[in-house]
Structure formats: C-alpha cells, structure tokens
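Researcher: We plan to redesign the surface later, but first we want a full-length starting point. Tokens attached.
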C-alpha cells in the first residue's frame, strides 16, 4: 500500500468524518488496504436496536458476529465492509424471538444482502441501462465486480409493482446477453418506473401481457426490427 494513499484516506476521515466512508448509520473503526481493495471494519452507531418481532428497543447485547458486504469503491479500489453485527436479547415477555440480530435498513444494508443499499442502487441502474453482460463488464471497470446473472436478478427483484392500475405503458427490448438473447421490459410511463421483464421479445409474448391488464389504454413501443 502506498503512503500517499494512506495519507489521502486519513485526510478524508479528518475532513468529512469516518461515517462518510461507510453508509449512513455505520461508524468506521479500522481500515486495511492492499493493492486493489480497501477493508473497513464498521459497526452500528446506535447503542440499541429494535426487535423485528415485538418492536421493543433493547440494549442488552448477547453476542457479536462479522458480516461482509461490498460497498462503493474508494480511490479506484473495491471496498469490502466487515460489519460487526450485534445480537440483542429481547426483554418482552410474550416475544417469540428472544435473541435477535440488529438490522440496518434496506437502504443501508438489507438482511442477507452482500451489497450495501447504495451499491445495490447503482447495480440496478446499470442493469436497466446496459443489460446483463455489458453492464457486468462496465461494473468490473468501475471496481464493482458483479456477474451478469446477478445484475438481472437485481433488476427483477427491485421492479416495483404499481399500486394503482396501469394506464400508459412503454414496451422496449432489453438485452439479457447482447447479440444473443433479448427480452422485453414493460414500464409505467406515468410513474416512470419499470413494471416487469418478459422472458423474450416475441410478438405473442408482448401481446399476451397487456391482455391480462385491461386497465391499460395506451402503449408506446420502441423496439427492434423484429
């Protein structure tokens, strides 16, 4: 690790505070560097946690364990957060969950996720903009390695179903594997959000989906020659 890089990180911490190096709500306790990666040991800033079952607050720490998650790169190096997660004891008499692990919120670090919320957002937008394999190649150059299959899974998982009925939709092609495999993306043009991904771009598939949503009155198409 270069001395200039270490001094640069120290200057960032002095100027912005250690919380700026990690997502909101996490504090940096220690940092390690190698040639291509930065490892940050972080913990929650709050002294207590809410039980996900009963909703009661607890300060009684039962144990701790380490959880790893990828975060946004720093100075051209990939970042790995080593999160110190605390297990708390719930004092509510009728609570079914006596011991629970603290949670950080989906926008910070969702349960079981291997990426922080802010990194997941970028991965989602890369998948929407570039498709599978091109987005994976671009993410690798940005020091955010992720597979093309993972990109597509993130896009599908984060597609938000509309609360109201669809009226105006947009239909476009999306590349699962550019030049070889394509699908169809359906968007709610009024709310400017994706609705679903169809497995191919055949005419019959695109016609079948709107027939199951009779509230749709207008469709805008921007597709390939097929």
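Model: Full-length starting sequence:
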């Amino acid at each position: 690790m270069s001395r200039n890089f270490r001094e640069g990180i120290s200057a960032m911490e002095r100027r912005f505070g250690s919380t700026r190096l990690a997502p909101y709500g996490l504090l940096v306790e220690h940092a390690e560097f190698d040639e291509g990666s930065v490892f940050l040991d972080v913990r929650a800033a709050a002294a207590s946690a809410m039980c996900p079952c009963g909703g009661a607050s607890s300060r009684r720490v039962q144990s701790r364990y380490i959880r790893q998650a990828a975060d946004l790169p720093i100075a051209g190096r990939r970042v790995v957060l080593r999160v110190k997660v605390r297990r708390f004891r719930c004092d509510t008499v009728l609570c079914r969950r006596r011991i629970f692990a603290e949670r950080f919120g989906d926008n910070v670090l969702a349960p079981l996720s291997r990426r922080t919320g802010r990194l997941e957002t970028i991965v989602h937008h890369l998948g929407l903009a570039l498709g599978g394999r091109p987005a994976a190649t671009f993410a690798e150059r940005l020091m955010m390695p992720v597979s093309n299959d993972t990109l597509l899974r993130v896009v599908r998982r984060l597609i938000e179903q509309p609360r109201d009925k669809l009226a105006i939709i947009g239909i476009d092609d999306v590349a699962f594997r550019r030049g070889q495999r394509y699908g169809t993306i359906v968007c709610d043009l009024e709310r400017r959000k994706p609705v679903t991904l169809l497995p191919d771009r055949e005419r019959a598939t695109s016609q079948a989906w709107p027939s199951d949503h009779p509230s749709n009155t207008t469709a805008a198409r921007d597709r390939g020659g097929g």
